[in-house]
Design a protein that fits this description.
The chain is of the alpha+beta class and 136 residues long. Helix content is 26%, strand content 28%. Strands 1, 2, 3, 4, 5, 6 and 7 form a seven-stranded antiparallel beta sheet that branches.
Protein backbone atom coordinates (compact mmCIF):
# COMPACT_ATOMS: atom_id res chain seq x y z
CA UNK A 1 0.00 0.00 0.00
CA UNK A 2 1.51 3.31 -1.09
CA UNK A 3 1.65 6.23 1.28
CA UNK A 4 0.39 9.76 0.70
CA UNK A 5 2.71 12.21 -1.05
CA UNK A 6 0.56 15.35 -1.27
CA UNK A 7 1.73 17.79 1.41
CA UNK A 8 -1.74 19.35 1.69
CA UNK A 9 -3.33 15.93 2.22
CA UNK A 10 -0.62 14.91 4.69
CA UNK A 11 -1.12 18.02 6.80
CA UNK A 12 -4.93 17.88 6.76
CA UNK A 13 -4.94 14.17 7.56
CA UNK A 14 -2.03 13.85 9.96
CA UNK A 15 -4.24 13.13 13.01
CA UNK A 16 -1.51 13.51 15.65
CA UNK A 17 -1.72 11.20 18.66
CA UNK A 18 0.15 11.60 21.93
CA UNK A 19 1.15 8.09 23.03
CA UNK A 20 1.23 7.20 26.71
CA UNK A 21 4.53 6.85 28.49
CA UNK A 22 8.01 8.27 28.80
CA UNK A 23 10.66 7.47 26.20
CA UNK A 24 14.43 7.85 26.27
CA UNK A 25 17.37 7.69 23.91
CA UNK A 26 20.20 5.43 25.05
CA UNK A 27 23.45 4.56 23.34
CA UNK A 28 25.51 1.40 23.26
CA UNK A 29 29.16 1.14 22.18
CA UNK A 30 29.86 0.10 18.58
CA UNK A 31 29.43 -3.63 17.89
CA UNK A 32 27.73 -4.33 21.21
CA UNK A 33 24.39 -6.09 21.51
CA UNK A 34 21.40 -4.69 23.34
CA UNK A 35 20.79 -6.27 26.74
CA UNK A 36 18.60 -9.37 26.57
CA UNK A 37 14.89 -8.80 26.89
CA UNK A 38 14.86 -5.25 25.53
CA UNK A 39 12.35 -4.43 22.84
CA UNK A 40 13.42 -1.03 21.47
CA UNK A 41 10.80 1.18 19.89
CA UNK A 42 13.51 2.16 17.43
CA UNK A 43 17.23 1.87 16.86
CA UNK A 44 19.88 3.27 14.60
CA UNK A 45 23.48 2.19 14.17
CA UNK A 46 26.07 4.95 13.76
CA UNK A 47 29.84 4.79 13.59
CA UNK A 48 30.04 5.90 17.24
CA UNK A 49 27.54 3.36 18.53
CA UNK A 50 23.96 2.17 18.47
CA UNK A 51 21.11 4.44 19.58
CA UNK A 52 18.07 2.80 21.13
CA UNK A 53 14.72 4.47 21.73
CA UNK A 54 13.20 2.76 24.74
CA UNK A 55 10.47 3.13 27.27
CA UNK A 56 12.07 4.80 30.27
CA UNK A 57 11.24 1.92 32.60
CA UNK A 58 12.93 -0.58 30.26
CA UNK A 59 16.09 1.55 30.10
CA UNK A 60 16.17 1.86 33.88
CA UNK A 61 15.69 -1.92 34.35
CA UNK A 62 18.58 -2.56 31.95
CA UNK A 63 20.78 -0.02 33.73
CA UNK A 64 21.16 2.14 30.63
CA UNK A 65 21.85 5.83 31.08
CA UNK A 66 19.94 8.63 29.40
CA UNK A 67 19.63 12.38 29.73
CA UNK A 68 16.51 13.17 27.70
CA UNK A 69 12.98 12.06 28.59
CA UNK A 70 10.56 12.40 25.71
CA UNK A 71 6.91 12.22 24.83
CA UNK A 72 6.12 10.23 21.68
CA UNK A 73 3.65 11.55 19.14
CA UNK A 74 2.51 9.66 16.05
CA UNK A 75 1.17 11.28 12.90
CA UNK A 76 -1.54 8.77 11.95
CA UNK A 77 -1.54 9.67 8.24
CA UNK A 78 0.20 7.05 6.09
CA UNK A 79 3.01 9.20 4.72
CA UNK A 80 5.11 7.99 1.82
CA UNK A 81 8.83 7.84 2.52
CA UNK A 82 9.41 10.00 -0.56
CA UNK A 83 6.88 12.67 0.48
CA UNK A 84 8.31 16.19 0.48
CA UNK A 85 7.66 18.84 3.12
CA UNK A 86 5.89 17.10 5.99
CA UNK A 87 8.90 17.07 8.30
CA UNK A 88 9.68 20.70 7.45
CA UNK A 89 6.10 21.85 8.07
CA UNK A 90 5.83 20.00 11.38
CA UNK A 91 9.27 21.14 12.54
CA UNK A 92 8.47 24.72 11.53
CA UNK A 93 5.22 24.78 13.52
CA UNK A 94 6.92 23.28 16.57
CA UNK A 95 9.85 25.68 16.21
CA UNK A 96 7.45 28.65 16.30
CA UNK A 97 6.11 27.23 19.56
CA UNK A 98 9.62 26.80 20.99
CA UNK A 99 9.41 22.99 21.03
CA UNK A 100 12.39 20.90 19.96
CA UNK A 101 11.58 17.75 18.02
CA UNK A 102 13.29 14.55 16.94
CA UNK A 103 11.61 12.84 13.98
CA UNK A 104 11.68 9.16 13.11
CA UNK A 105 10.14 8.09 9.82
CA UNK A 106 8.79 4.55 9.60
CA UNK A 107 7.02 2.74 6.75
CA UNK A 108 3.50 3.90 7.64
CA UNK A 109 3.85 6.92 9.91
CA UNK A 110 6.13 9.65 11.15
CA UNK A 111 6.92 9.68 14.86
CA UNK A 112 7.97 12.70 16.86
CA UNK A 113 9.82 12.82 20.14
CA UNK A 114 9.59 16.05 22.11
CA UNK A 115 10.56 16.86 25.68
CA UNK A 116 8.07 15.02 27.87
CA UNK A 117 6.73 18.22 29.43
CA UNK A 118 6.04 19.61 25.93
CA UNK A 119 3.96 16.62 24.76
CA UNK A 120 0.46 18.05 25.33
CA UNK A 121 1.43 21.45 23.91
CA UNK A 122 3.04 19.82 20.85
CA UNK A 123 -0.17 17.89 20.27
CA UNK A 124 -2.16 21.13 20.23
CA UNK A 125 0.33 22.80 17.86
CA UNK A 126 0.04 19.86 15.45
CA UNK A 127 -3.76 19.81 15.65
CA UNK A 128 -3.79 23.52 14.82
CA UNK A 129 -1.47 22.88 11.87
CA UNK A 130 -3.82 20.17 10.58
CA UNK A 131 -6.82 22.52 10.88
CA UNK A 132 -5.05 25.38 9.10
CA UNK A 133 -1.93 24.30 7.17
CA UNK A 134 -1.66 27.72 5.52
CA UNK A 135 -1.50 29.43 8.89
CA UNK A 136 1.66 27.64 9.92
Amino acid sequence: MAGETSLAALLRGMQPVLNDGEYVYCTLPPDSAAPAGLNPLGSFREQEGQTLILERADAERAGLGFDYVAAWLTLEVHSALQAVGLTAAVAGALTKAGISCNVVAAWYHDHLFVAHADGPRALEVLRALARDPAGA
